Amino acid sequence: MYAFIIKRLLSALVTLFAVMTLVFVLVRIVPGDPAQVVLGDQASQEAIEAMRIRLGLDRSMAEQYVEFISNALVGDWGTSMVTGQPVLAEVLKVLPWTIELTVVSLALGAVVGIPLGVWAAVRRNKLTDYVTRV
Questions:
Q1: What is residue 107's predicted lDDT score, i.e. its pLDDT?
Q2: Are residues 33 and 93 both part of a single domain?
């Protein structure tokens, strides 16, 4: 039992690390300069360069990645480029609705899925069994 739990926890950690790495890479390969996006088209080159330094874009990718992972692990998810608020605060603000949607979806899935599963089991190898497996 403990081996199963340890295996699942390690699997979850590997998945979390992979997702964090994917997020880091995807944000970095989006076309355009993030500093220019934050400041707008009318910003001076000096202001853009100052923003690049503030955002840490002047450092190597390896340094940015280590900082990204370490900040994420301690709950410092940075500042939203849209609202200027901490990202963690923005996420926590909408978390109740996310949980509500999840609970409603699970309940709806159970209310529909369990009767369909029973119906398919009772009518095994018939058309209803094959249709409900889709």
A1: 98
A2: no
